[in-house]
Design a protein that fits this description.
The chain is built from six helices and five strands. By secondary structure, it is α/β, with parallel strands linked by helices. Strand 4, helix 4 and strand 5 form a beta-alpha-beta unit. The chain binds 5-O-phosphono-beta-D-ribofuranose. 5-O-phosphono-beta-D-ribofuranose (RP5) binds next to strand 3.
């Protein structure tokens, strides 16, 4: 199975990124995690992206906050799918990172998830790998079904508490 590469701009992003790592682990998807910054270590970030396909990666997740150029900088060096996680920071609540990540020029796509949306970044990467891994597709279907059952259980509890027949 192809690996998912996870790159974060700073170790301070790890509390957010951990949800992606945990989600991939729960599906048995191998991943490799790095701290490479588009600004502080641009050569390492570019090298990683340039060699990723040959190193067995199928998708790259890039998480960064503030002037979040990491996902775009990585996408510029590879035609693997790149998923950007805009990370929330103190001053602008993650809007800065969201806009920096999502507003890519035509020709260099980044699939951007919600601010701090690390679990969805992992799920999207699993959906991409599942195109050629039927057992991953089955696990995704099972998770959807379990999630739906959980919501319906809550619906039943709320209905029992508030919905009375006349
Ligand atoms: C970004 O700047 C990083 O991705 C991080 O979200 C933010 C702050 O980085 P540190 O100053 O905590 O290293 O590049």
């Amino acid at each position: 199975m192809k690996k998912v590469g996870i790159v974060m701009g700073s170790a301070s992003d790890l509390p957010i990124v951990r949800k992606a790592i945990d989600t991939l682990a729960s599906f048995g998807v191998p991943c490799e995690v790095h701290v490479y910054s588009a600004h502080r270590t641009p050569a390492e970030a570019a090298d990683f992206a340039r060699t990723a396909r040959d190193m067995g990666f199928g998708v790259i997740i890039a998480a960064a906050g503030m002037a979040a150029h990491l996902a775009g900088a990585i996408a510029a060096q590879t035609t693997l799918p790149v998923i950007g996680i805009p990370c929330k920071s103190n001053n602008l609540d993650g809007i800065d990172a969201l806009l920096s990540t999502v507003q890519m020029p035509s020709g260099i796509p980044v699939a951007t998830v919600a601010i701090d949306g690390a679990a969805n970044a992992a799920l999207l990467s699993i959906e991409i790998l599942a195109l050629s891994e039927p057992e991953l597709a089955a696990k995704l279907d099972a998770k959807r079904a379990a999630d739906a059952a959980g919501v319906l259980e809550k619906d039943a509890a709320v209905a029992a508490e508030f919905n009375f027949a006349d």
